[in-house]
Design brief:
alpha+beta; 3 helices; disordered C terminus; about 325 residues; four-stranded antiparallel β-sheet
Length: about 325
Amino acid sequence: MEKKTKMMVFCLLLSVICSPVLTGEWKAEVVQKLDALVSSCIVIPCTFTYPENNLPRSKLRGIWHLKSDKNQRVYHEDNTRVLENFRGRTKLLGNLGQNNCTLEITEIEDHGNGPYCFRIELAENEDPTINKFSFVEDCAALNVLPDPPLPELIYSETAFLGTPYTITCKVFHTCPSHSPTLKWSRVESFMEHHRKLPYGLWEVESIITLIPEEKDDHKEVTCTATFNGQRTSSNKFKLRVKRTLNYNHIIIPIVVAIGTSVTFGILFVFIVKRYKRRIAELQSQDGRKPRGDMGDSGPIQPKLCNYKEDLDGDNKP
């Protein structure tokens, strides 16, 4: 009896240890909540694992169905087995051989919330065998949006005249197979980027660079997003253009004033030096002439009479 009890305990422990490993082989990774735009499309990312020894990759069949009933199929390789309102609207984008079960749904309806679950089967003679599994614990539900999301604009408050000005427009979506397009109200060259984000989100971004002119001041710049199904949304802002910040109106008058002052200063020094040199020349000329000199002929000398000779002359007979 004791031996039998030990054997039962051992079997229970073994089942507890092995159970998670075995059940863990059947697993799907699906984003469980996604936004979907009415009349547009959505891509539901999905990957899965399964016991590879039991299911050969070449004979796998992927099915998507409503969580409420696995027979309510929204995708099947045989279109006749799909719900009528989903026929032609669903497509398996993933490669089952690479464990990818990604699903695309187009022409989203306002009541098509799901949830949608993935199912894997082994296909033999087009009939499912006992090797099949529905991942009803990992299903995707849609949050259906009646209106498209607005693009987000990123820009500086002020643009400067003649200086390159960059504006970024981006919008989020959940349909990378039919990404929205972004268009600008101005015809300029632009760069476009597509980024994959977590949780089934994608981002498309457009960057435009323009050279503002005076006529652009207070003009509107608009970015319009067009989604699959011709749904559009737009965002806009007014461009504010200012002249380039500089100090020319202060620097130029100061430079002119300084230049004028320097010019007059140099001219004044030159005149003073010339005047002093002329004075010196005149003074040197005056220093070479005798005092009392009244002209080239010299001063008039008074003629003295020889009184004695006159007297003697008078006494002569």
